[in-house]
Amino acid sequence: MTLQARISRQDGQKAQRRQKRIQVARACDGCRLRRTKCDNQTPCSNCVTREQTCSNSGALKVSTLTQATEEIESLRRRVRQLEEELKQRPDHNPPTPAGSSPSLAFTPRNDHGGRSRNYWPGTQLRPARASNDTWLGPSSLQFFIQRLGAFLTFNLQQAHSTQHLLPISASDNQLLNRPTVRSHANPTKQLISPTGEPPTEGVYLNPIQEEYFINLFWQTFHTSLFPIVDEAQFKEHYQSLWTGGKERAPSALVDIIIAMCMQYGISALPADAQGLLVEGQDALVAGRWHYWRGQTLLSYELESPSLSTLQCHLLCAVYLCGGSFHNMMNNAVSTAVCTAHMLGLHLDPPSDMSHRECEMRKRLWWAVYVMDSKSNMKLGRPFMLRDSHSMSSLPNDSLDAARTSGSMFAPIGDNATWLSFNLHQIKLYMKARAAYTSYYDQDLPLSTGQTVWDDPSILEASAEILPLHIQGLQDWVNAVPDALKLSRQNNGTPLSTDGTRLLIEGFLPPWLQRQRVLLELTYHHLSVNLYRPFISFSSRPQPGSLAEEIAMRCASHAIMLSKITQQILAETSILDGWHEAFHSQWNAAMSLIGFIVVYPNASLTTEARAAVNLAVSVFDDFGIKFEVARNAASIMRELCVKVDFLMDRSQLQLDYLVMGSFDNSTNYPGGIMSHGFASGPDDGRPSPIRPDTIHSFGSEFFDMAVDIDFWNDPGTLWPEFDNFVLHQDHLRLGEMEAV
After folding, report:
1. Angle 284-290-294 (CA atoms, 0-180°, nearest 5)?
2. Does residue 381 form part of some domain?
3. Count of Cβ atoms closer than 10 Å to residue 253 Cβ
4. Is 0.90 surpassed by the pTM of this model?
5. What is the pLDDT of residue 280?
6. More confident residue, 224 or 280
7. Which is nearest to 424 in space by CA: 396, 401, 403?
8. How far apart are CA 680 and CA 698, in angstroms?
């Protein structure tokens, strides 16, 4: 071969070696996921072999475990979204969970569906200060009291009106009477007249008196309710109102703050030291003249509201709640919701706004959220804010946010500030509201006229919704910084129901002590309300069931709330005059009364009964200062007598049925039990019945003995027993009537 030929051959071989191999344009999704070679066919041979769909969408970009986890979670969310959309179709029948009957399937309520739904019942009730009935929903204490009253009426054969089980105030409807001031009257009239008689005109404060009550605001409502007023800006505004003379320029915000602090400050004083500030009434309506003057000023701002307008509506709602004007409070909250939307607070603040203004707008919006949640969960009415819409981001509790808030409070540790209480309170209401919505927003499989308490299986099925939310509340507890937790004696656990006493730390500012106490009381209060529907007066849940466990949780939280409130009032002054603490205690006490009459022999009942006594002492403490608490103490004492009567009667029945522990001289029914003995197998002589041998009578008798409720009639088993119980009832009813 010539040299030229060899060179040409070598060049050709090099060119052949340099030629790029044919590559697949893009492997299919399945091959890329498994990192196998794809032949670029459609479908590829690998997918054909695996009998899978071959696609090349490019959607799979997962290369790490973290990315895979995120992708899986994204797909799960999409599946849940599609399932919810499918359920909302009118013709969709939801699948029945495995192991349950079709009649017990629960589905989310569809407001746009074609078929009707069964809703939780409520009650039409006439409040103490109203002339017309109003509707109160299933979560309200009033509805629970109505069910309790019906139960007591049936079992004691005495009428128990709901109205008589609700504490009322001596002020009655006095807040509704506007003050009348004659044109020549001095609007800064002194509080105490020389004659000692109540004034007939509006009572307004002088500058020194106003400053006294305004200063209360910063250490109480400002730090322990919600921080919606810039302290520095308010003080500057307040000084500008005094332009000369003895009267300041009108300001609705100043008036409502003074009214709130008069109600609180006077409620912390004994009744004989309150002077004429209450005008012959009680502390609930102290400051009403300032309240009404502020309302008059607010009426001019309805068309053109400002942040100050919203602040006034929120604080008015707090004032009305403290005075037990619940419908007026609900109306004030609804006005606040509308005003917040008018101001655009549901949206994140604009980027060009200062950090200080941004945080104030966020705190205002979430204060509206808290008040909407608080008022409507309390009254059992629909929320006015919809969780389905996006909201403004949560406010900040950082050191920088605290420095620019307008108030100067020292950091409290754990990177927490005085604003941290507000943030964690918001998060608590978010958890409670989610649980509330999930539980009550159900399509109940009920027959016409039937309630959830009429069928234990339906009550048990509804209980299965709550465990996830119970865990959510525990997650909230774990996230609360230690600086906001109340310490316990004997290494007890804060924010728990372990029953340990508080370790009250000294040398703490009152505002921080109050924050810790109120955060824990709010946690227990919301838990009591959430779990209370499982105290059923119609049919008890099965022993050991989830519904019974949740009823026990309700009692545990009510017991803990009573212990904390009583200890704080006995050892400190930080709850003196705090009306929200009184309302929480009343709520817990009535829940405990309901628990005791339903579970008279439970292991928790003795502790619950002791907690009711603590509640009475709390009402006595509050009762020294305002009338409604005295009335609550009177109602509770009367209920205690009746509860003890029912507990004793229940114990008599259990003793009779199980232990046979009555006196042998008593004339008891014969047969299977005679004089507390069972007939012997050989000579017919009776032998004692012992708990460890009760099974010898057979499982039917044992079930009948241990499952009998005190509202059942044992006369169906032993007719002679009626005479014995009737005799005991006459004795105890005579004692009650004497009381």
Report:
1. 120
2. yes
3. 21
4. no
5. 54
6. 224
7. 396
8. 16
Which residues are paired to 673 by β-bridges? none
Work out how many domains the chain is built from and give that number. Answer: 4
What is the chain's percent helix, strand, coil content, to nearest 5? Answer: 55, 5, 40
Tell whether 143 and 212 lie within a shared domain.
no
Q: What is the mean pLDDT of residues 489-516?
A: 94
Q: HSE (CB half, 13 Å, CA atoms) of 45?
A: 4
Pair (154, 236) in one structural domain: no
Dihedral of CA 706/712/714/717: which sign? negative
* Long-range contacts formed by 504-511: CB under 8 A, 24+ apart: 504/567, 504/568, 504/571, 504/572, 509/409, 510/219, 510/574, 511/219, 511/220, 511/223, 511/224, 511/409, 511/418
- Tell me, yes or no, whether 611 lies in a domain: no
Q: What residue type is 525 in one-letter code?
A: H
Helix (H) or strand (E) holding 296: helix 288-298
Indicate whether 73 belongs to any domain. no
Residues contacting residue 534 through CB under 8 Å, at least 6 positions apart: 459, 463, 541, 547, 548, 550, 551, 554
Give the residue ranges of DSSP H helices in 538-670. Answer: 546-571, 579-598, 605-623, 627-654
Distinct helix (H) and strand (E) counts, the chain: 24, 4
Give which of 343, 342, 333 is closest to 369, Cα–Cα. Answer: 333
218, 155: one domain: no
Within a domain: 679: yes
Residues 6+ apart with CB under 8 A from 642: 152, 156, 736
Amino acid letter, 290: H
Q: Are residues 216 and 364 in the same domain?
A: yes
Q: Are 270 and 625 a contacting pair, CB within 8 Å?
A: yes
Strand (E) or helix (H) holding 436: helix 420-440
Q: 646 is written with which tokens?
A: 């029912």
Residues 223 and 155 in one domain: no
The first and second tokens of residue 42, run together, are 């459609």
Q: Is the pLDDT of residue 97 over 50?
A: no
What is the per-residue pLDDT for 639?
95
Name the residue range of residue 703's domain: 647-738
Mean residue pLDDT across the chain: 79
